[in-house]
Amino acid sequence: MRSSLVIVGAGPRGTGLIERIAANAPELYAGSGLDVHLVDPHRPGAGRIWRQAQSPLLWMNSHAEDITMFTDETVPMEGPVRPGPTLHEWAAVDGRTFADRPTQGAYLRWVHDRAVAALPASVTVHHHPRRALRVSGPREGRQQVWLEDRPRPLLADLVVLALGHLDAELDEQQAGLAAYAREHDLVHLPPDFTADSDLSPLAPGEPVLVRGFGLAFVDLMVLLTEGRGGRYEGDTYVPSGREPVLYVGSRRGVPYHSKIGYDWTGERPPLPRYFGPAEVDALLARPGFHFGRDVWPLIEKELGFAHYHRLFTVHPERTTLSWSVFEEKYAAAEDPAGRAALVASAVPDPADRLDLAALDRPLDGVRYGSFEAFQEGMRGYVERDLNRRHDPSYSPDLAVFLGLLSVYGQLVRLGDIGPWWHGFFSYLASGPPGPRLRQMQALSRAGLLNFVGADMTVTAEDGVFRAASATVPGAVVEARALVEARLPEPTVARARDPLLRRLHADGAAETPEGLLRVDPDDGRILDRSGRPHPRRFALGPYTDGRTPGAFTRPRTGGPAFRQNDATARAALVFISALARRAAA
């Protein structure tokens, strides 16, 4: 009897898993036949998010040279490295290009086809363009994967969930806003993937409140402007007349920081230094560690080390100590206050100092006397951010970016650390391309994009939605439309995916933040007593092993690649052992 592996989800994570199965098979696969079943209503490789059928106006938010689906020697894994082209090498585009998403989808489909072709001849891949509804079966026996519109299940020796980003049921607040909108004939668009949202109810010339200032907002901005026929002439936006008027705010009240627009040169900071495997081991050995008390101080020191290593070694004229002296004193400074005093004495210009609290909340305590003054102030803020992120004299910012990647790679082992870190990381390290912020500036000058401020509140009363912020005391914006410009939260209990909800009902464990608990070593799904399921695995953002992304920047260790490799190796070892027992 041939062995069977079912992979639910055929996007980048499913593709990455197949690539690692092909890479590890020569060492670990001992079977005479294996059927790999890919279950996904969308075409394998691109999946839903990167599918071909979306607007080419939507870009990747990384340079084409910074996107790869292939491992290199920096990935800490047991399996072999199988190099391959980055997006820019494959597409033959300038490495500094921000490719459109259909191009990324074509790259992912090519990677999928290449990975399938690299599998042993005895391995056959089958694609089932359906949704998986549930998984059943005993812990020690074959699993049944039930599909939509199919009366009989797929039989599987192992099941891997690579579901990617998921839709979610509305939380209590969103459900209340949606109900109010229905009762008063308003428009309420809840958290969603912007490319999937029906934006047609947002009428030309009408005010629209937007809550969220990250990448989902950027997509919304593009689709409601260029997507409706507007165009840019240099730094000026020429409207089509079909655009609504956007009023946007968020917790921070500012857009995500621009992608850095220069290349790295010279020596990289030697990371990790203060937050590496030994520190993670110590945290895991300690019962009940707390992120703010136990983890964040290590991260803060690590990011400071990356920043000041670059400043002192490349821009020594802006410091008062040698790097060797500063490094020794920095290592000895155990508390933030001591490090701050050291930095103040050794780095004269405050612009050269790393202030993570100020970066996180730039509008904290800032007040403007009028709505118009705030618009001008925000345009100045965005302009300064653009200038700095494209000026290599501030290259310590890029060192901090590398530090953030290093930190994320370590945090994966700690499981669910709460939502704050992931938002902070995205805000600093995963912001929009610089040209998108230039477009934001042009739309602001054209009066089609207005900034509301930090800690934006939204109320539903008197038949309208109202937005306000303490950044501009007394200013209130009214609108008949509200868009929640952010992704749905990947909680197990509220996921619309029926398979995930059924797993949870059947005893799969979730974290306090609602993520599916998995074994950090190989991705096996844990039950509520902490036991790993021998035949069920899960990878992706809905698990407590979530990573910055399924594809990553070359030569940065790629934690998703490490996870894919570990899961692939565990699956091959398990299936090979079954085959040996069957042959005995």
Quick recap:
Residues 511-561 are annotated as: Disordered. Residues 516-530 have a biased composition (Basic and acidic residues). The protein is 36% helix and 15% strand.
Task: Give a description of the structure.
With 584 residues, the protein is of the alpha/beta class. The chain has three domains: 255 residues, FAD/NAD(P)-binding domain (3-Layer(bba) Sandwich); 138 residues, 3-Layer(bba) Sandwich (FAD/NAD(P)-binding domain); 153 residues, no CATH class. The protein is built from 16 helices and 19 strands. Strand 15 and strand 16 form a beta hairpin. Helix 1 packs across helix 16 and helix 11 packs antiparallel against helix 14. The protein starts with a strand and ends with a helix. The relative contact order is 0.17.
Features:
584 residues, alpha/beta, FAD/NAD(P)-binding domain, 3 domains, 6-stranded mixed β-sheet, 5-stranded parallel β-sheet
What secondary-structure arrangement, pairings included, does this model have?
Elements: E1 3-8, H1 12-28, E2 34-39, H2 87-91, H3 101-117, E3 123-128, E4 132-136, E5 143-147, E6 154-156, E7 158-161, H4 172-183, E8 187-189, E9 207-211, H5 215-224, E10 231-233, E11 236-238, E12 245-250, H6 277-285, H7 291-314, H8 323-332, H9 336-346, H10 356-360, H11 371-389, H12 396-411, H13 420-429, H14 434-445, E13 449-454, E14 457-461, E15 464-468, E16 476-479, E17 481-484, H15 498-505, E18 524-526, E19 532-538, H16 559-583
Parallel strand pairs: 1-2, 1-7, 2-3, 7-19, 8-17, 9-12, 9-17, 12-13
Antiparallel strand pairs: 4-5, 5-6, 10-11, 14-15, 15-16, 18-19
Helix pairs in contact: 1-3, 1-16, 7-12, 11-14
